[in-house]
């Protein structure tokens, strides 16, 4: 009965100890509670604990007086831990054996010295949590009853230690969940800030506010590349006061910026910056607001779709902000900032495209307005010569090769160019056209290739050229033979490489353009005379199409006459429903140096002069012979020509001839004034004196 009561008493004490141990909040308090219990026992023992932490490894807890020391050292692995782990049984050693086996641990012994040691595994559900070591200094050794009591104590320690580790693990998980919740909260705030912003300045201010509130970082900057590759845009938000940041926008040199390295390699970088560092020249405001010998900077790349768009630069923060999970969170904020930066760039690109679209619409409106009754809507004709040309058009239209339209002036080269474009796979986009002879040489390059803002006086903003407008479409260059020699290599490069640079720019622009060129000049002769580059001629002459003159297709004159009469009546409000056979015969008999354009002008004049419903030719054409009629078409003017003597008549004929040769161009190196050896003003005054109308000469 006495033994049973003693057993129950021991069990009650063990249960009380277990409850005490379960109330402790850490291992040090657990050890202190265990030693307090042992001091109340008949024989005072000193307890030491070794906890095998899965993260930090073995940790030895020893109590000296009221202080608990935690020792973490590799020597603990050479102690009894591995033996206890293998045997899962108590280890009983005297002081001499202990010193012999584990001299490093023995040297840690504090006075008073022990004489016997009992090392027991701390187990819970067969899992080894560590061991506890009991030492006695009364000169006796542990007997079997002492070992049995010690095993009960180790079991209580196992239950308490398992409970403590589970509670600490739950607390750590709860702390991590709270941090993640706060992290998600700041990420949501940053995301809400960035998705609504189109301006980089306001974007930086909002992101800087969130970073300052959550991390306590006082200096926040966003660095973005400039259109000039040698410069960077730096947007600063410095919180010298808690409420309102000091904002600024600077353009700094890329070579002297610490952000340039991050833009190049795209990795997070931490650096120390001093006032005398060469990179500090671009950080004058940072040292101005916070004078210090050294600043720690964190540079986080702003990436979107694998491309580095900029750098998030941070300073004036606690050191832990740039470590571990805090640094990862800053990288996530930089990712969201990248979305906003890309949105801002897209918005700027949309505005640029909008401006370009307005310019293109304006250009197309001008082109539509220029489509007067002097131009075709379709090709009229059934002669063998025109049918042969149409077969060539049909053959080449489906390809992307360059086409060179050759023929006299007025044969309808632009009409055939439009036909080639309409039959091509690029017909879904409007064909862009340009007359190389009508544009001054100084503006021709800008009009063809565009220019950058500030490229020359008057270039107030970026402008697209005709090649960019014709991307995925066709570009028709009329009178390509009049293109200046200095501009021809650049045109050749576009045709070969499908890339060019704007005037005043250094960025290569790739385009996909199908070129259709036209000229009434003999390019082969111009190549021999060094007036046209041979390599450009060979590039243009991939598929030449010669358009027949009107004299070669006289069978088409009746069809063309009916077409022109019908359209002229629509424009002039006339009603002519009869064309006499003699009129058609007379038109077929005449010479047409101006080709279809000349025929069109004659028909319009005839419609205007016809009083009834029957077409009547002008009297001078009805009565004149072929040479006189041809001369009339060339030189006739609404005003009567003044009387001239023989010298003036020779001068008149010479000026008219040169004007026809230069296609009506007066000024410039290819103009009539240059060929006649006169100043432009002198030639204009002589033309006025002799009654020469440039437009009438070209009709």
From TrEMBL:
Domain of life: Bacteria
UniProt domain Sigma-54 factor interaction: residue ranges: 379-608
Matches recorded under Pfam families: AAA_lid_14 (PF25601), GAF_2 (PF13185), Sigma54_activat (PF00158)
CDD domains found in the cross-reference section: AAA
Keywords tagged on the record: ATP-binding, DNA-binding, Nucleotide-binding, Transcription, Transcription regulation
Classification via InterPro entries: AAA+_ATPase, AAA_lid_NorR, GAF, GAF-like_dom_sf, Homeodomain-like_sf, P-loop_NTPase, Sigma_54_int, Sigma_54_int_dom_ATP-bd_1
Parts of the chain that traverse the membrane: none
Name of the protein described by the UniProt record: Sigma 54-interacting transcriptional regulator
Organism: Shewanella electrica
């Amino acid at each position: 009965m006495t033994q049973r009561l003693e057993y129950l008493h021991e069990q009650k004490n063990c249960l009380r100890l277990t409850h005490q141990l379960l109330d402790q909040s850490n291992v040090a308090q657990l050890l202190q509670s265990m030693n307090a219990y042992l001091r109340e026992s008949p024989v005072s023992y000193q307890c030491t604990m070794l906890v095998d932490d899965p993260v930090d490894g073995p940790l030895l807890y020893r109590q000296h007086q009221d202080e608990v020391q935690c020792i973490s050292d590799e020597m603990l692995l050479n102690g009894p831990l591995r033996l206890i782990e293998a045997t899962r049984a108590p280890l009983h050693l005297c002081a001499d054996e202990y010193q012999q086996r584990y001299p490093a641990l023995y040297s840690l012994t504090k006075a008073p010295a022990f004489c016997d040691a009992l090392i027991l595994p701390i187990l819970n559900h067969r899992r080894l949590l560590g061991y506890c070591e009991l030492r006695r200094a009364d000169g006796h050794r542990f007997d079997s009853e002492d070992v049995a009591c010690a095993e009960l104590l180790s079991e209580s320690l196992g239950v308490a230690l398992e409970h403590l580790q589970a509670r600490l693990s739950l607390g750590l998980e709860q702390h991590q969940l709270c941090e993640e919740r706060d992290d998600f909260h700041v990420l949501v705030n940053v995301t809400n800030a960035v998705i609504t912003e189109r301006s980089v300045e306001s974007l930086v201010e909002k992101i800087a506010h969130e970073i300052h509130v959550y991390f306590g970082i006082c200096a926040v900057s966003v660095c973005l590349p400039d259109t000039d590759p040698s410069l960077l845009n730096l947007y600063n938000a410095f919180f010298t006061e808690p409420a309102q940041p000091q904002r600024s926008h600077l353009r700094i040199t890329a070579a002297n910026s610490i952000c340039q390295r991050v833009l190049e390699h795209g990795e997070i970088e931490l650096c120390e910056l001093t006032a005398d560092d060469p990179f500090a020249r671009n950080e004058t405001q940072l040292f101005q607001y916070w004078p210090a010998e050294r600043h720690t900077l964190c540079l986080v790349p702003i990436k979107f779709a694998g491309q580095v768009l900029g750098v998030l630069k941070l300073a004036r923060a606690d050191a832990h902000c740039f470590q571990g999970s805090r640094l990862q969170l800053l990288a996530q904020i930089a990712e969201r900032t990248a979305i906003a930066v890309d949105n801002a760039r897209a918005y700027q690109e949309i505005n640029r495209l909008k401006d370009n679209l307005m310019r293109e619409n304006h250009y197309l409106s001008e082109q539509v307005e220029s489509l007067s009754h002097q131009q075709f809507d379709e090709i009229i004709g059934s002669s063998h010569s025109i049918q042969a040309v149409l077969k060539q058009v049909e053959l080449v239209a489906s390809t992307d090769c360059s086409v060179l339209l050759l023929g006299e002036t007025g044969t309808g080269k632009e009409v055939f160019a439009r036909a080639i474009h309409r039959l091509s796979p690029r017909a879904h986009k409007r064909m862009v056209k340009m007359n190389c002879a009508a544009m001054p040489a100084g503006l021709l390059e800008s009009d063809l290739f565009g220019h950058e803002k500030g490229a020359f006086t008057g270039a107030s903003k970026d402008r697209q050229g005709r090649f960019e407008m014709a991307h995925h479409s066709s570009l028709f260059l009329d009178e390509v033979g009049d293109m200046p020699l200095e501009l021809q290599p650049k045109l050749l490069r576009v045709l070969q490489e499908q890339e060019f640079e704007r005037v005043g720019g250094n960025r290569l622009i790739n385009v996909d353009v199908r070129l259709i060129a036209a000229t009434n000049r003999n390019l082969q002769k111009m190549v021999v005379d060094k007036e046209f580059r041979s390599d450009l001629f060979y590039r243009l002459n991939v598929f030449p199409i010669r358009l027949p003159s009107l004299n070669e297709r006289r069978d088409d004159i009746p069809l063309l006459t009916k077409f022109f009469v019908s359209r002229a009546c629509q424009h002039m409000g006339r009603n002519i429903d009869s064309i006499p056979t003699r009129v058609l015969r007379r038109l077929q008999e005449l010479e047409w140096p101006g080709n279809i354009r000349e025929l069109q002008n004659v028909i319009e004049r005839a419609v205007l002069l016809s009083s009834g419903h029957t077409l009547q030719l002008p009297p001078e054409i009805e009565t004149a012979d072929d040479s006189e009629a041809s001369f009339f078409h060339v030189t006739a003017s609404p005003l009567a020509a003044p009387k001239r003597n023989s010298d003036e008549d020779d001068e008149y004929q010479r000026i008219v001839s040169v004007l026809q040769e230069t296609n009506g161009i007066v000024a410039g190196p290819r103009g009539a004034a240059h060929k006649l050896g006169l100043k432009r003003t002198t030639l204009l005054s002589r033309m006025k004196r002799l009654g020469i109308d440039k437009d009438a000469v070209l009709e």
